[in-house]
Design brief:
TIM Barrel; zinc; single chain; 3-stranded mixed sheet; 373 residues; alpha/beta; UROD/MetE-like_sf; 33% helix; 12 strands; 7-stranded parallel sheet; 11 helices; Cobalamin-independent methionine synthase II family protein
């Protein structure tokens, strides 16, 4: 599998948030007065952000990861509740006020209101990229909230429909991705948490608009559940019109369906039309049943499997990780396979998070050795 400018057998990396050092979390120098997200607004906050990202990068290097992730430091203390704030602060068209999302497992998400034309006003992740690039010589990956997740976290009072809002957000993201590619990012990752509940016909079009013409490897992480440990609900088998509007009944399940397989099937076959290089979702907690749709739909691109359970504080052994990787290889050949955490690690102590990353790298090393690497 390609990582940066080279082929790496069974590369290991991390998805999403990483526990910030305690000295950084909640410190006033890391927050612009009156706003909830992270902003680099003077030399002190810039130094703090760079030091924080350096700590996160070093933890990944010590663990032995091949692709170093940004750790989503930009998310603030509660990265999920503040899902859209980081971008909203840097775009036109948004106001802070608005109710939280009417979604059972994501009810902690606060949704701001779109009241005007959405345009990127300031860079989204250029400071993050520069800080990460200074912190490591290894290939790097920067994470973005996906267009589908952004639209779900928006109370739209301006655009005629959800697709029009999504395309406006996609254009803003596309501008930022191209800036990062010009500076030198190896991979960018878009995170989508609403896709397991069913996908509207507009979502792949918006994703492709966001990544069009970007000279970097494009990763797509599909999230199977929220930060509190609740698994994703199965999609509602209802009216197509409701799905296109982004309306889901998350408490209903198709009769006779199995939870894991149906949750994975909800992104197929539409995800086959996505202009991405890598698809990623969890396997560590749900098991290999979610991988059946990959084979059924002849997925021929790279797949990065989450094999570390981020909902449990118990650290896997390297042998346990190796066993999970072997189970994934029943569906994906090792030449197209990478491994990572199921999702982000923000709700566990940093020491445990670091140990889980080490188990991930050591488990991958066991399987590599079995294949002559």
């Amino acid at each position: 599998m390609r990582i940066g400018n080279q082929e790496v057998l069974l590369p290991a990396t991390m998805v999403g948030n990483y526990p910030e050092p305690r000295w950084y979390r909640g410190e006033s120098f890391a927050r612009y007065p009156g706003l909830p997200g992270n902003l680099v607004f003077d030399s002190i906050s810039k130094e703090a952000l760079e030091d924080c990202i350096q700590c996160i990068a070093r933890d990944q290097e010590r663990a032995g990861l091949d692709l170093i992730a940004d750790g989503r430091v930009f998310g603030g203390e509660d990265a999920y509740a503040q899902l859209l704030y980081h971008y909203m602060e840097r775009m036109t068209g948004y106001e802070l006020n608005g109710p939280n999302l009417p979604v059972p497992i994501y009810s902690a998400l606060y949704a701001p209101t779109c009241v005007g034309e959405v345009r990127r006003r300031y860079p989204f992740h250029l400071d993050t990229l520069k800080a990460l690039r200074r912190s490591t010589d290894r290939p790097i990956k920067v994470s973005y909230t996906g267009v589908g997740a952004m639209t779900a976290a928006t109370n739209n009072t301006y655009y005629s429909d959800i697709k029009e809002l999504g395309l406006a957000l996609a254009k803003a993201i596309n501008e930022d991705l191209k800036d990062l590619a010009d500076v030198g990012v190896d991979a960018v990752q878009l995170d989508e948490f609403v896709w397991p509940y069913g996908m509207g016909d507009w979502e792949i079009e918006c994703l492709n608009a966001a990544v069009k013409g970007v000279d970097a490897q494009i990763w797509l992480h599909v999230c199977w559940g929220n930060w509190g440990g609740t698994p994703a609900y199965l999609p509602y088998e209802g009216d197509d019109e409701d799905k296109d509007l982004g309306i889901y009944n998350l408490e209903r399940r198709p009769e006779g369906s199995t939870e894991t397989t149906e949750r994975a099937r909800s992104i197929f076959p539409k995800v086959l039309g996505a202009d991405i290089d890598v698809l990623n979702y969890e396997v560590g907690r749900t098991g290999p049943d979610d991988l059946k749709p990959l084979a059924d739909n002849n997925w021929d691109k790279a797949f990065v499997a989450g094999v570390i359970d981020v909902k449990s504080l118990i650290t896997e052994t390297a042998d346990e990780v190796a066993d999970r990787i072997r189970a994934v290889m029943e569906y994906v050949p090792i030449e197209r396979l990478g491994v990572t955490t199921d999702c982000g690690l923000p709700n566990m102590p940093r020491m445990i998070a670091a140990n889980k990353l080490r188990a991930l790298a050591e488990g991958a090393a066991i399987v590599r050795a079995e294949h002559g690497a």
